[in-house]
Amino acid sequence: MSKVIALANQKGGTGKTTTAVNLGIGLARQGKKVLLVDSDAQGNLTDSLGYQEPDNLPVSLASVLTKIMTEEPYEANEGILHHAEGVDLMPGNIELSAIEVSLVNTMSRETILRTYINTVKDRYDYVLIDCMPSLGMMTINALAAADSVIIPVQAHYLPAKGMTQLLQTIARVRRQINPRLTIDGVLLTMVDNRTNFAKDISFVLRRDYGDKLRVFQAEIPLSIRAAETSAQGKSIYAFDPNGIAAKAYQAFTKEVQDIGEKRRAKQHQADLGR
Ligand SMILES: Nc1ncnc2c1ncn2[C@@H]1O[C@H](COP(=O)(O)OP(=O)(O)OP(=O)(O)O)[C@@H](O)[C@H]1O
């Protein structure tokens, strides 16, 4: 049984892409089959995995979604790239901006990405969708396609206002399109443990949201090495295996895997009871 996770936060630069890369490759290192889906028109995930000119790729998520919208046939593995560290990638690029516009006039406009993911997900244990920094149509599509959401939050500012908006959108998607959508939790990123401010934010987040939402135990530290990995086309495990960011992403991967295992066990029990 595969699990589809959206990495979402409408605020830009909160660590969604870095988390997609290092969670995805972290899970692959545990023997899981992983597909990363770049649903952001900036193509940063695609770029971070070493495809430095995402706009020149012949096939990308936008081309496959166009085929779905125009009811053209496509191959299930069409456009999927293989990364040396064991994950697959459905690349994204600037063409997704045009898709975002044309979705508005399309039938089933909220579920085009779900249609695509449903055709490929059985080959994977995990499908991770890196979302755009907006609450536009592509993000709604990602939430409609996902089983759960992980919210990376940059520990530089109090996230209360932005979080409320995101949580309301998730609740609306759950009511109207995707009742099974859950929130796996909030991940604190770029935590500068030298400052009291970062500690305060961690404390406030756990205090204000901790009874409603999981705030992951693992916190990703602010790390120059983590920032540098995106230009290297590899994960933090390959680039700086003994650094603090690699250790934190490893611990985070373990937490995500534990949630996945519990869900599988619960589903298994439910199937037995049928
Ligand atoms: N732990 C970290 N320490 C320091 N820098 C980091 C860390 N994680 C990510 N960065 C850097 O911060 C910037 C934003 O990170 P990232 O691209 O992962 O965020 P994002 O939420 O995907 O951004 P966008 O909203 O633009 O898609 C990047 O330059 C990245 O290299």
UniProtKB/TrEMBL annotation:
InterPro entries documented for this protein: AAA_dom (IPR025669), DNA_Partitioning_ATPase (IPR050678), P-loop_NTPase (IPR027417)
Protein known as: Chromosome partitioning protein ParA
Domain of life: Bacteria
Native species: Dehalobacter restrictus (strain DSM 9455 / PER-K23)
Domain AAA: 2-183
